[in-house]
Amino acid sequence: MIRFEEIGLRYGSGPEVLRDVNLTLEPGSFHFLTGASGAGKSSLLRLMYLGLRPSRGLITVFGHDVAGLKRADFPALRRQIGVVFQNFRLLDHLSALDNVALPLRMAGVGEAEIREHVVELLHWVGLGDALDAKPPTLSGGQQQRVAIARSVIARPRLLLADEPTGNVDDSIGMRLLYLFEELNKLGTTVVIATHNEGLIARFVHPRLHLERGTLSVLPAGTPMVPQPSAQAPVLPAGLATSQSLTGSWLT
Amino acid sequence: MIRQRLDLPLAEDSTGRFLVWIMAVMIYLAIVALAGSMVLAGMAGRWESGLTGRLTVQISPLPDQSVPPLAQRTEVTLALLRSTPGVVHAEPVGAAAAHKLLEPWLGTALLDDLPLPALIDVEVGPGAGLDAPALAERLAGAVPGARLDNHAAWLADLRILAHTAQLVALAVVVLVGGAAVASVVFAVRTGLAIHSPVVELLHIMGATDAYVARQFQTHVAGLALRGGMVGLGLAAVTLFALRLAAGDTPVGLMPDMTLGLREWLALVTVPLVATALAVITARWTVLRVLTRMP
Q1: Which of A188-202, B236-250, B276-290 bottoms out in mean pLDDT, i.e. has the lowest?
Q2: Does the pTM exceed 0.90?
Q3: Which has the closest alpha carbon to A2: A70, A55, A57?
Q4: Which of B13, B202, B205 is the best mutation test for A, with the most CBs of A within 10 A?
Q5: Is any Cβ of chain A less than 8 angstroms from the Cβ of B292?
């Protein structure tokens, strides 16, 4: 499905944010992707959804060597990948229904069929009464559900989600993860980036863990041990000696 | 209901309003230039068809007492013309008709006092092979003050004028079209820059470059058509106003501003052609810009 070999990624002339990443996602697998902020989770997901090209190494997606693909080859591959973005990236001028319908329209599905599927899915995620609502009028949790519905509506072969339960309460978060599990049982390969250890603990799936740009694959059920900070943060001298800060702001 | 909408929020861009008015002005100028060219071409055509196969003989009044009077010289000229092979018809232009021709320039007061030349309208048979220079020479030798005008020089000038005017109109249309294309390129590039995050999102979801281009094509088509209708409306008002204004002037001083149905239909297609040009430009611009993207 997806294979990364010795992948390195740097932005411009900056340091490598991903180093020597080797990874194979088998068809129908389910992985959580964890790591501290800035560890490179979003960059790894971007490489997976073909939003970036690596600085070095070889990426194979659905059997195609990405380096050898022409620009015109990418759309067909990307349509097989559903993505839930951390900041949703919904189109504010479109209704919830039209947002979710986008992948189907790009695939050339007929309007009647689009409506049927989209309405059904929006009802399923609890937004049946918000079909025509524009994203700015929806709560964060509702927007997230629209984003998730959009990512799964075209039944992608690979589903990538960046913190998909970050803005919803636990019950809706569980419901959404069950949706991902159901899709996984139907054959969709799933990778979910999350910080929510509570949710991870309820599912038996292996974990891809990023630590300062380096990836390790941990078997299901491996608890995460918090990494001690290399060094306690030291306040700038000016701040540390400020009476007003120590008296109010820092407390 | 699912409504057909643009995935890119292009309708909210201020460049849209700008493009409508740019297109309106461009199409207005193009239609007026084309209409002017058509009027001149029609006028030249009418004059040319009216004068082809016709000659005019002018016999000037002469103060010299030794020369026979004008009426006698006119009779001699008529006899000579009617006996010339190839001349189908030769008829003097009556004084009333001559006065009517000169009235727009000289007014009525002067005409009665002026010594006017006698004019003979000559019709030449088609393919008769009349040798006009030889006839002119014979006339000049036989009748003092007689001069043959075959309108060749005048028609040549008219043709040059009409062709020049048409070239100028064509140049205006080309310039206007170039400016319209540049405006569309600018508006589309601006739209791509403003909405680059959405374009990137659509690409991530699997949109082809052609899909993105269609968004801009649809948007630009709507703007160009709206601008085109405004431009056509303004041009129609202008042309009707010119026609009304020309209607009161004496015949001959102003060209006939009447356009035929075929000409009007041609002018009505200008906004459609401009819209097609704008759509092609939008598509070309989007594809060109996107191809350069990683």
Answers
A1: B236-250
A2: no
A3: A57
A4: B205
A5: no
